[in-house]
Design goal:
Elements: H1 4-15, H2 19-40, H3 46-62, H4 64-76, E1 81-85, H5 88-101, E2 106-109, H6 113-117, H7 120-126, E3 130-133, H8 136-144, H9 160-171, H10 179-196, E4 199-202, E5 206-208, E6 213-218, H11 222-228, E7 232-238, E8 242-243, H12 249-261, E9 268-272, E10 286-292, H13 296-300, H14 316-320, H15 322-327, H16 338-349, H17 356-359, H18 366-370, H19 377-392, H20 395-408, H21 411-428, H22 440-443, H23 456-467
Parallel strand pairs: 1-10, 2-3, 2-4, 4-7, 5-8, 7-10
Antiparallel strand pairs: 5-6, 6-9
Helix pairs in contact: 9-10, 16-19
Length: 468
């Protein structure tokens, strides 16, 4: 039986030996870091901007119930239909009912990771509908039958030749190695899909309580077509995306653009407050907002880790994570990859099945440092590890950690163990890499360095004696 852990081990074993791909990833993300660094310098005080963004999101999380009520009341006043979905199944069922009511056969989607989370596409396809992703990266991975590699850059793992090949095979285009021409191939194919679609489905980067609107941020303009051309627009939004005031976007949008793609501001920023109103010439006849909990309130109830709900899905923590750079996004086997995915997935899908993600970290702190809303990511990874052991720790693991703590708390006992450690290392060396190697699982991918010739304590003692 394949479990999340066995899948993770299998995929990481394969990805870590693909050195060309790792080099490609690291080169691409290095370019992002350089670009972002230049944009950060245009802020008067970027760290203050991050503190302001964190405060806005913290206020929203602390007042989530009242802000959601305020936002939905304002939306309903303009004819929006609201669905409160406790889990993914409820969200999918509602969307399928809307599709059935309007006899939908074709659906166009703009980028929305929440729909990936609730597995909406397979459900709609099973119901007989054609579903097309309109975001270029999402469209490419959809044609390849893959999940997004990165929740901001879904197809970042693919070079031009692979993109050209999938276009040739799936939509019958001519081969090309020119990025602009590849974009035009996708655009030409997509245009008819917008016009034919019965339903347009989008996500929401933010929900504004004060005005009753959703804010959508994009670089391609596809979301504007998705939300305005079809007669029915359905937006799917996690409940944590709400912010208190319209003015808050003046800091949240630049933070998202800078942290997400190294832009001062993302190319297209749209505000949607309901279906087409009287006197308006365009827009959908129906607008539905599906608010998804799906265990977010379980995370909200955790006073230590609820600040993870501040996440604005910029992907910055993935871009600086040394683990992500080497194993890639597909290895995680989750909707949300990297440090933030490793923090929230155990809350969304279960701690025990996904506890391994929190151990897949160097704990270097780069994720916490880069986060534009100052989420304490690397400490949350430690807390997930602790909670996993407390909830269901193995007997041997508990015993080993108790003995370790006793040794570390007693200096004399610690120093007496130095000789045993050296003896153990000498006995292990002849077994290294062999079938009888007790550390084989560790040393297959790591180097066990020999102990220093002299301990620090011994060197310090000799230094002090030399002074006297």
């Amino acid at each position: 039986m394949t479990t999340p852990l066995t899948q993770f081990k299998s995929d990481t074993k394969e990805s870590t030996v693909d050195f060309d791909h790792r080099k490609w990833m690291q080169t691409a993300l290095k370019g992002y870091e350089n670009t972002r660094g230049g944009v950060e310098e245009t802020f008067g005080d970027f760290d203050q901007a991050k503190r302001t963004g964190a405060a806005i999101k913290w206020e929203a999380i602390e007042n989530l119930d009242t802000l959601l009520e305020e936002m939905t009341q304002n939306l309903e006043a303009r004819g929006t239909k609201i669905c409160w979905a406790g889990n993914g199944a409820e969200a999918v069922d509602y969307i399928l009912r809307v599709a059935e009511d309007c006899d939908a056969k074709k659906v166009i989607k703009s980028k929305c990771m929440t729909t990936e989370e609730i597995h909406l596409n397979p459900a709609m396809q099973k119901a007989g509908m054609e579903v097309v992703e309109s975001d270029l990266g999402e469209f490419i991975v959809q044609l390849r039958g893959e999940d997004p590699f990165h929740f901001v850059f879904p197809a970042m793992h693919l070079k031009r030749n692979k993109i050209s090949k999938v276009f040739e095979e799936k939509i019958g285009s001519e081969p090309s190695n020119d990025p602009e021409e590849l974009c035009m191939i996708a655009r030409s194919y997509m245009r008819t899909k917008y016009c034919e679609a019965d339903i347009g489905i989008s996500g929401a980067n933010f929900g504004v309580a004060e005005t009753g609107m959703i804010s959508i941020t994009e670089n391609e303009g596809n979301a504007r077509l998705t939300t305005s051309l079809p007669k029915v627009h359905i937006a799917v939004m996690g409940i944590e995306k709400v912010i208190p005031k319209l003015d808050d976007l003046s800091i949240m949008l630049p933070l998202l653009g800078t942290a997400g793609a190294g832009q001062w501001l993302t190319g297209y920023n749209s505000m949607i407050g309901g279906p087409r109103q009287e006197g308006e010439v365009d827009g959908p006849e129906e607008f539905h907002l599906v608010l998804v909990d799906n265990h977010r309130t379980r995370l909200l109830a955790d006073p230590e880790q609820r600040d993870a709900l501040r996440c604005i899905r910029c992907g910055a923590c993935l871009n600086v994570c040394p683990i992500f750079k080497n194993i890639g996004g597909h290895s995680y086997g989750t909707t949300y990859q990297g440090p933030i995915g490793s923090v929230i997935t155990p809350h969304l899908r279960g701690l025990q099945p996904y506890k391994h993600l929190s151990y897949s970290s160097s704990l270097c702190g780069a994720c916490s440092e880069t986060c534009p809303v100052k989420i304490d990511l690397h400490h949350h990874l430690m807390r997930n590890r602790r909670d996993a052991v407390v909830e269901k720790g193995g007997t041997m693991e508990r015993f080993a950690m108790r003995q370790f703590s006793k040794v570390m708390a007693r200096p004399k006992l610690y120093r007496s163990c130095e000789g045993l450690m050296r003896l153990g290392e000498k006995c292990w060396r002849p077994l290294k890499g062999k079938k009888a190697d007790p550390l084989k699982a560790w040393t297959q991918t790591r180097e066990l360095h020999p102990p220093a010739p002299k301990s620090f304590h011994k060197q310090w003692k000799e230094k002090q004696q030399g002074k006297s």
